């Protein structure tokens, strides 16, 4: 009984520690966004679900290329795409989003439930948890604190879900032809460079013990 009590206390302390590291600031997820998400899943992936839920199999790392937390949050907050994204609105009016947003100081913000689909990675949204990092431009590169936060998040997510892959956004097309790839339009691709392979490889090295699968090669 005594041993069980100690284990329970340690588990409680770990849970509290995790909660303290993640701040919930939900983006708008109203009826419009729910319907657009279900429409996206049906039209892009052929998934006729009455739900926006996903089964996470990978974590995708991103940068926002936006210089502040406030502006990055605003970019994801509304349900529909803003007028300055005509390249994406022709595919779907659903706004881009991500499950997590990491500020330059390493603070982790959760924008939406981890098992709800976010539009952040072509072909893989149905199975991917997205982590966005504020910045990423030449004048505002990603920080060591963001790197540590991403490593923490990957470990945290792997402890909750059956995560098989951790990838950078620039690697998403390597999954074309993979069983997880569901995009129906062969012409719908965008060129990505985020968050830089140096950042991705550092996260992978720090989480090597979790034995994620290697990214497919073409």
TrEMBL record:
Gene3D superfamilies: Peptidoglycan recognition protein-like. It catalyses: Hydrolyzes the link between N-acetylmuramoyl residues and L-amino acid residues in certain cell-wall glycopeptides. Residues 45-196 form the N-acetylmuramoyl-L-alanine amidase domain. SMART domains: Ami_2. Its EC number is 3.5.1.28. It holds the Pfam family Amidase_2. The keyword S-adenosyl-L-methionine does not apply. Keywords: Cell wall biogenesis/degradation, Hydrolase. It comes from the Bacteria. The keyword Signal does not apply. One of its GO terms (molecular function) is N-acetylmuramoyl-L-alanine amidase activity. It is an enzyme of class 3 (hydrolase). GO terms for biological process: cell wall organization; peptidoglycan catabolic process; peptidoglycan turnover. This is N-acetylmuramoyl-L-alanine amidase. It comes from Flagellimonas aequoris.
